[in-house]
């Protein structure tokens, strides 16, 4: 056997010479029955394709932008919430759109800062079991079912990341961006970690353990810029764009 598909002329017959009860076309066109087919892999491929098309179409004319990440659990009275607002406002004043995950907490703060500054406030939402939906400060929102499609948009349409304190989701975005930059999949992609008290221990571990053990290079660690100063965080992008 070659493993190649075979083509049979005439009606497909079951064992014993019986004709099948339904045809492929009939099952496709018949609107009756359950909706199980929408969960099959071929249909998922089309939905994934549709999400890419929707994201590309919505963001194609966005212009310069920076993705701002941080915890959805950050409360409005947390100093990092105010920092997120200020960072977004400074980015707006420097001519950047602000992209977040569109949710609450640090994402809401950044969207609010961009919106109130009169800039472009973008939210890229994700379908989650307990997702609250887009925050009220999002001007341009796109919802996604698939994380990897959404992640592509964060990187493709941003000049870099500013990362506020966050949890697993924030770490996921951070280290994926580091991997893409380290492997040359993205170039000239600055990553700012805002909040030295929060991020300092991580950066120390990267240097003292990963780097010391030869698992990464010094240039890999240098891709991270840690600061507590809002203006410094934003000027890190502006300076690169001016060169």
Automatic annotation (TrEMBL):
Database matches in InterPro entries: LOG, LOG_fam, LOG_family_nucleotidases
This protein's UniProt keywords: Cytokinin biosynthesis, Hydrolase
Keyword Disulfide bond carried by entry: no
Entry's Gene Ontology molecular function annotations: cytokinin riboside 5'-monophosphate phosphoribohydrolase activity
UniProt GO cellular component terms: cytosol
UniProt biased composition (Basic residues): 1-12
Catalysed reactions, semicolon-separated: 9-ribosyl-trans-zeatin 5'-phosphate + H2O = trans-zeatin + D-ribose 5-phosphate; N(6)-(dimethylallyl)adenosine 5'-phosphate + H2O = N(6)-dimethylallyladenine + D-ribose 5-phosphate
Pfam families assigned to the protein according to its UniProt record, in alphabetical order: Lysine_decarbox
GO BP, sorted A to Z: cytokinin biosynthetic process
Disordered as annotated region, ranges: 1-28
Enzyme nomenclature, EC number: 3.2.2.n1
Family: Belongs to the LOG family.
Name the UniProt record assigns to this protein: Cytokinin riboside 5'-monophosphate phosphoribohydrolase
Lineage: Bacteria, Bacillati, Actinomycetota, Actinomycetes, Propionibacteriales
């Amino acid at each position: 056997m070659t493993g190649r598909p075979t083509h049979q002329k005439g009606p497909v017959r079951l064992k014993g010479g019986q004709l099948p009860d339904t045809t492929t076309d009939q099952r496709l066109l018949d609107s009756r029955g359950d909706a199980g087919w929408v969960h099959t892999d071929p249909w998922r491929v089309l939905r994934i394709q549709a999400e890419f098309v929707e994201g590309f179409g919505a963001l194609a004319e966005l212009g310069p932008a920076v993705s701002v990440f941080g915890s959805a659990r950050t409360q409005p009275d947390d100093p990092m919430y105010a920092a997120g607002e200020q960072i977004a406002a400074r980015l707006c004043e420097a001519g950047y759109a602000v992209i977040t995950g569109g949710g609450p907490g640090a994402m809401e703060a950044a969207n609010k800062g961009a919106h109130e500054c009169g800039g472009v406030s973008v939210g890229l939402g994700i379908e989650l079991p307990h997702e609250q939906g887009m925050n009220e400060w999002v001007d341009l929102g796109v919802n996604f079912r698939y994380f990897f499609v959404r992640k592509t948009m964060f990187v493709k349409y941003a000049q870099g990341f500013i990362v506020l304190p966050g949890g697993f989701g924030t770490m996921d975005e951070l280290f994926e961006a580091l991997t893409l930059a380290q492997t040359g999949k993205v170039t000239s992609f600055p990553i700012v970690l805002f909040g030295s008290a929060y991020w300092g221990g991580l950066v120390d571990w990267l240097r003292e353990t990963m780097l010391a053990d030869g698992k990464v290079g010094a240039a890999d660690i240098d891709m991270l810029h840690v600061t507590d100063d809002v203006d410094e965080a934003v000027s890190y992008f502006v300076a690169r764009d001016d060169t």
